[in-house]
């Protein structure tokens, strides 16, 4: 799902509030983060068969522009998804 301009602004505001102390990359030490322009899903691994609930976590992905180290934030907690699903 591609982020709208409003969602991109909300993502930046969320990162400014919660990813503020020492934003240096844990791997290379640079401070050059890129917010991916779309959301991703992390799916629960079904053990012993199919997962009828298909548990998913929506993610906002932030990547170090230098080394590629990736950090993710829950998109719901970042306010990027409405209760009914897509939107924000």
Automatic annotation (TrEMBL):
Domain of life where this protein originates: Bacteria
Name the record gives this protein: HNH endonuclease
UniProt source species: Thalassomonas haliotis
Upper taxonomic lineage: Bacteria, Pseudomonadati, Pseudomonadota, Gammaproteobacteria, Alteromonadales
């Amino acid at each position: 799902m591609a982020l709208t301009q409003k969602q991109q602004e909300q993502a930046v505001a969320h990162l400014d509030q919660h990813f503020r102390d020492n934003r240096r990359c844990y791997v290379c030490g640079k401070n050059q983060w890129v917010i991916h322009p779309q959301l991703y899903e992390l799916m629960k691994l079904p053990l012993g068969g199919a997962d009828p609930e298909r548990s998913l976590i929506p993610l906002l992905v932030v990547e170090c522009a230098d080394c590629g180290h990736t950090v993710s934030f829950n998109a719901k907690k970042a306010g990027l998804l409405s209760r009914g699903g897509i939107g924000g």
